[in-house]
Model the fold of this input.
Amino acid sequence: MLSAVRRDRWAEPMPNPDPSSRHVPVMLDRVVALLGPALERPGAVLVDATLGLGGHSEAFLQTFPQARLIGLDRDPEALRLAGERLAPYSERITLVHAVYDELPRVLDELDIPAIDGILFDLGVSSMQLDEADRGFAYAQDAPLDMRMDNTAPTTAADILNSYSSAELARILFQYGEEKFARRIADRIVREREIEPFTNSARLSELVRDSIPQAARRTGGHPAKRTFQALRIEVNGELDVLRRALPAAVEALALHGRIVVMSYHSLEDRISKQTLAAGTKSDVPDDLPVIPAGHEPYLKLLTRGAEKPTAEEVAANPRAASARVRAAERVREKGLVA
Ligand SMILES: C[S@@+](CC[C@H](N)C(=O)[O-])C[C@H]1O[C@@H](n2cnc3c(N)ncnc32)[C@H](O)[C@@H]1O
Done:
């Protein structure tokens, strides 16, 4: 279950390898440039909704010495490592164990009426991928866990061993865009009768065997889509994002900015739709004048989705699928019709 807001609890230094050596923040300069204009005034509040190892946050704290940071993460281990990295800025940071759709409650409890910037760097962190026992990586044998918050109740193994074939096929198709969802789901249900699923290698093998030989040669590792789908289901990722982005836009002060970095098309679609919705008036096109309170409340800062440069991808292959969208609040909070 979700814990209540706990202020700065995670900022206590603890022995661990240097987290900055384990994560390179994606599209860092661009993200700083997009959010920067909103963070220059003394006391500006930035929310890092996906703190991770604190790479982006550290750059913001360095670049904007008068800004305050609220960092959220659902992964207690990420909070602990980021707290250690950001300890030099402890006066200006508040780190909170929360799922990002809890932002309105977190801001309420911290008595912050509006924020100046918010960053979503979606998906899993390098630390989560690198720690084999968390079960995110399809290329290594590990327990089928995939919880970003290891205090949450449902693991990937629970889903594989309990969902009906139809439910499994639905999540593989919707969240993994897997063409062979039905075949994989039927096979999972047959195989779990013999023995419940516990480890990722068995699932990877099953997926490979369920896909026709010709299809195995395209689209990367055959298990990639199934693992993505399970991870999204375990963490309720898309539903949470659908709630969180409008709430984040609503929390922005006038001229506040939002940046969303997605890593697959399902996330990017939600980001695109949420930001686009704010750029249109909700009155019929044939009305000669837009009544007060019905003007667009967002202005897009990016043209389509921006991608990392070829140099960045060469240096950090994990950045390859990143897509950035950003917008500025152009009508005041509370006036969204
Ligand atoms: C890609 S990493 C962020 C990396 C970070 N920008 C950095 O520079 O170190 C994404 C982080 O977001 C967290 N996360 C993912 N979904 C979340 C959610 N719904 N609520 C809160 N945190 C979430 C993950 O636990 C992970 O630590």
